[in-house]
Amino acid sequence: MSDPTNPTPLPPRSGHQQSGRVIRQETIEVSFIGPLPHPQILQGYEQACPGAASRIIEMAEQQGSNRRLIEQSLAASSQDEMRLQFREARTGQLCAVIVALTFIVAGAYVAINGHPWPGAVLGGGGVGLQALVATFVRGRGGQGEKNGDREKPRDSSPRSQQGKQTNKKGKK
Questions:
Q1: Of the four listed, 46, 87, 123, 132, which is most buried by Cβ atoms within 10 Å?
Q2: Which of 91, 84, 125 is nearest to 107 (CA)?
Q3: What are the domain boundaries of the chain?
Q4: Nearest-CA neighbor of 140 among 102, 84, 78, 79?
Q5: What is the pLDDT of residues 104-117, one digit of tens each?
Q6: CA–CA distance from 119 to each of 114, 115, 134, 136, 163 (Å)?
Q7: Share of residues in the chain with pLDDT > 90 (%)
Q8: Distances from the Cα of 168 to the Cαs of 160, 161, 172, in angstroms?
């Protein structure tokens, strides 16, 4: 086993004379992760330019405080957005209740005044009323993708198309 403090000389290459020197190569790899440079590097900056180390430390402190302010700002804006969405959903539900009750009262009024079928359609909620109320309850169309929700993909396979085809009389 060779001694690292006393390396053995390399054998001479053919055709070359031995110069008597020993060549030794070392590779040292150092890594340091953090907002500040390694303490030895920081000390080197201080020796090269007095006061540089304190300025570098102040810069790192300012960057940290700015990063924390940005994170607090993002968290606050996220909370504000959630509050706004909740308020908008509640307003939509309230509008849906008002519209539904208005149609029910109008349908009852029409039915009492001698028109039972139109009153039933009006108060019972035809397809149009149900769609209107559903729009108020669910919110704006296309908003689901903005919030990360995705619509289910439509099945375009031949099996799913069979139920949509109509016969010659126009019935499904």
A1: 123
A2: 125
A3: 39-139
A4: 84
A5: 888 889 889 998 88
A6: 9, 6, 21, 23, 33
A7: 27
A8: 19, 16, 10
